[in-house]
Every structure is written in C-alpha cells, then in structure tokens.
Amino acid sequence: MFLDFMSEVEALLKSALERCGCNLEDGANPLGLDISPHADLASSVAFRLAPVLKKSPAAIAAEIHKALPEERHYVDRVEVLGPYLNFFMNDRFLDKVLKEALADNAWTGRMSEKVIVEHTSANPDGPLHVGHIRNSVIGDTLVRILRRAGCKVDAQYYINDMGRQEAMVVVGCDHFPLDGSKADHAVAKVYIAANKLMESQPGIRDEADSVISRYEAGDPEIIAKIQSAVKYAIGGIEQTLQRMNIGHDTYHWESEFVRRGDVEEIVGLLEKTGLTEWENGAFQLDLTSYGFEKKMVLKRANGTSLYITRDLAYHRWKAENSDRSVDILGADHKLVSGQLRTALGLLGVREPEVVIFEFVSLPTGSMSTRKGKFISADELLDEVEKQAYEEVKLRRPEESESFLRKVAAQVAAGAVRYDVVKVSADKATTFDWKQALDFEKLSAPFIQYSHARAASILRRGEGEDLAADGSDVACQLLKGDYEIALLKKIAQFDLVIDRAARELKPHQLATYARELAESFNLFYRFSPVLDAEPDLRQARMGLARAAKNALRVTLDTLGIAALETM
Questions:
Q1: Per-residue pLDDT for 269 more than 60?
Q2: First to last CA, the chain
Q3: From CA 160, how far away is CA 213, in angstroms rounded?
Q4: What mean pLDDT comes out for the span 10-36?
C-alpha cells in the first residue's frame, strides 16, 4: 500500500535529481520523505542539498519540481511549498488501497530476516512484577511487528538458573515447604523466607555458595533440585504472560552454555585480547580504555562464572543463529549492556540491538522481591479485570455472566498492553487503570470499540456479503473528506509496520492504532452508511469493512483482542 506510493515518489525524486546533476550521500532517508499535514508525502531533500549547491532550499525545490518526470502511476500531483516538495495520491492508488484492504491481503511484509527477540527473562525466584510487564509487552509487540513485516522471529526467554537467586530458592526449599499458592508466588515466599533466615543464620549464604559451585560442576542432585524449582516457577510466570496474550517460542538456560564449554571458550578468547587479569581474587576484563570505570568480572576466585560471562556466550550463539538479535532491557541494565556489547566487539561478534526501557510506576511504591514488598503483575491484572468487568456490565447488563467475564478479561489485557506500549520505551510512564479503561478516550477499549462498531455496521447492513475482491464497491463514490482521510490512514499501515520493525519502536504502531480508530469514528459520525442511497451505501459499506480489517490486523499486531461486540 503506502510503501508502493513511497517507492514511486522515491523513483521520481531520484530521476529529477539525476537530471539536475545532484548526488546525495547514502544514509537513512536521504530524500527526507515523511508524511506531512500538507501532503500525503513530503520531501525535505532541498535542505540537504542547500550547503552543497550554495542555493536557497526553496530555489532548489523549484528546480527539482521542474525536473520531475511526467509519467506517474500513483502520484496525482506535486506541489512546491517553500523548500518542500509535496506529493499527493491519485484515485487509482486509493482504489488499490480499498480493494486490497477488502481482500484482507494488504498486510504482508517485505522483510525476510531471521530475528531473535529476547524479552522478559525474569529470574525464576518469584512472580512478575509491574516492572516486568513493560519488558514483556514491548518485547511481544516487537515480535508481532517483526512477524507482520515478514521476518521469521524466535521469541526467546533466557533463564537465569545459575545465579545466587536460584541458589537461595533451592536452599529455601530445603528449609521451608512450598505452599499451595500459584507456583511463582509460592517460590517467592520460600525465597523471601530464606533471605530473612540468612539474617540470623549467616551459614545460609555458605549453603547458597555451595549450591552455585556444585551446579556449575554438574552435580546431578543439585541439577535436579534447581531445574525442578526453575520449571515450577516458570510455569507460574507463563500463566501470567498468557493472561496478557504473551508467549515465547524457545527457552534457553544459562547452564547450557556452561555445559557445552561455550563460556570457557569465551573467557579464553577474551584472555587473548591482553585486557584480562586476576585482581582482588577475580578474573576481570579491563574496559577502562573504552570509557567504563568498572572492570568486567568474568570469573570468581573459585573459578565459577558470572551472569555476564554466560550472557556473552549466549549472545555469540544468538549472533551465529540470526540475522538480527534484539534485547529488551530495563534502564538499570544500561551499564552492563554497554560492557557486553563492547566485549562482543572485541571478539568480532555482531552486537545485539538493544531496546532500553524506562520503568512503569504505581502509587504503591517498592517492588523489591527481597524485602517481600512488590506489586505483582497478577495483582495488577486482577484489579484491572475487576474494574473492566464493572464497566462492561454497566454497558451490557443484559448479557450473560460468561460473556461479561470473557470480555472483561480481554478488555483488561488490552488496556494494560496498550497503556504500557503507547509511550516511547525511553520515557518513564505511570499506569493509571482509570485512563487505561476509558472507552471514550484514546485507550485500548476505545480502539476495540471502534472495531466492534464497524462489525455492528456490517452485521446490520449485511456488509460481510460484499465481494472479497471489492468488485462490487465503487471507490470513485467515496469523495468525502472523512472517507478519503480514512482510506489514506488505512494505507499507512505497512509504512508504520516497516518503520517500527526497522527502528524497534512499537509505540509507533500504538499511535497509528489510535489515529486509525479516530479516523474511522469521524467517518462513522459524518458519513452515514446504512441510510445512504444504494450505490453510496454499498461503497461506504465496503469502506467500513476495509476499516474493520485494518483495525483487526492492527489490534492483533498489538496483541489486543479485536472484539466483535462489547
């Protein structure tokens, strides 16, 4: 759709620049193309050429405009507005948008890379808390965006089974029984109890150190204990993720890279750089010349590896088994992430693309599992679902209890996901369930309701009986401002997906979803569908179905249920 229009604009501009004898340097978006409030697509290329040509951008834009080829397929007209070149779509392109959206085949991406996205990867020592939610939602949304863009994606969970936290869980299970609560919550209680016990019995720390050493050495008894505890906790975490429509394709354990010898090999390769040394009882990598104040510890005095060492091995494996590797990390991982990428660079290993996110806050404060004070994701989801139920019941009191519960769960999950992902990852955010569940404002329920409204129109007007290829819909009758605006907004989906996939910015899709819903609602308000005269009614019914398809695909890519009624 839009990418086809953009491709034509790019070709026209390149041809004109060649005629003018202008050359552009390579780089991101050298033609300066972007959507504009003044045009369907605008170019700021004249600004880039001004320093080279020693002319004003406006004069350059006028010259390029004169040199543009006359033969065009999707471009209607080109206007010069000061230093900008403004391109407009023709009716042929809008007809193409409608037909493809009606056929529901317009959203096949053009990328083909094999991508590994690692997200969530929470320690299996308790339930997910609110901070984890943003990691999981951003990660899963990126997985969906990349798949929609055409990539083959493996969503991975990296299990920390060799750290002190897991050792404390094992020690805790030796001293305290697991109760009958949800698995990850039961593990958290044992973990917290073990840490409290350590305050009065310092020997507990020695027990944990012994577990770490024996596990890395391959002790069968300890392996069985740790893996059992990990699988138990992960089972509970998976239940929480499923409530938010989030899943993983594969799980990788830290220990597998130790057992295979990958970690020892990494240490050996780093040693060859001449930047390693034993200092203060630890084997360290000196990265001070790369701007890091702290040295990277690779091995403890007893020879056991650290998380960062195992993470290096894991990332080398990911680089070898993908075209792109993406990490979703909290802001507290900036330093470690920087060290890891620098170390990988020393080894000649492709560095991962890292999405650093700031944290989600709640009025309730601390989320420290060690102190036993945290707001679990389950608690948040329970509260949001409770409030969603009340809202849905108020709107649909005649419906059955099973309907209300099902819709409430879908609305709640969508509300959490959208509220988390709508803000750029590099900005902190506060989750407010009242705003997140507002059906009238720009929230997930608002977008879901727009889809349900489109579905309702089609049911009442038998719009689902329209031909799949759009042959019975006269696009030329759709001339109203709100009709054209909706068609153009539908067209933008593939551009948004392409950019979000390349730039790893899922909030761009959330913004588009809101704009698409707004555009549809303006069309619904000012362009009567069911009461229009027959031919126009048919055309508007086709546009309503195209919008419904676009809303459904957009919501699905955001991991949010596209409800037929609510």
A1: yes
A2: 30
A3: 15
A4: 90
